[in-house]
Amino acid sequence: MANGSFEGLYTFLDIGEIYGIDSSCLRKKVARGKFVIDEDIKKLGTTWIITEQAMVRIFGTRKFEEYQEKQKKKAKVQEKKISCEKVKPKSKRSINKTSSINEKEEKVKDSWVSGDIKGLELKSFAFNINASE
Asked: What is this structure's pTM?
C-alpha cells in the first residue's frame, strides 16, 4: 500500500460477495475486536477496507480461491470478446459514393486528355489597382 497499489485490498461489500455474508456481520466482528484496526482493516470515509491476509485468516481460503478463479474466467471471457470484435466496415453506400466520385473525376480527366471536352476557353484578365479611377 505504500506504493499506492490497491491490490490485495477489499471492501466489506467485496467480502460479502466472496464469502456470502452480510456487511453488518463484518462490522460486528470489528466491534468485537476480531480485526486489528490500521493493520487488518481501515475505514476510509464510510467504507471499510480489509487486507487479503486478514480476510483469508478470518474466513478461510476455499471461497476466496473460488472467487479468484471466477475473476480469472471473467477476465478471459472479456479478453476474448475484445479480440473477437470486428471493426465495423464502412457502409456500401459510402464506398459506392467514394468510388463513383473517383470514377467521375477519372472520366473528366480522360475526356480532357483525349480532347473530347471542347469549347472551354480560359480568358486572362488583370485587376486595375490604380486608386485614382
From this structure: 0.52
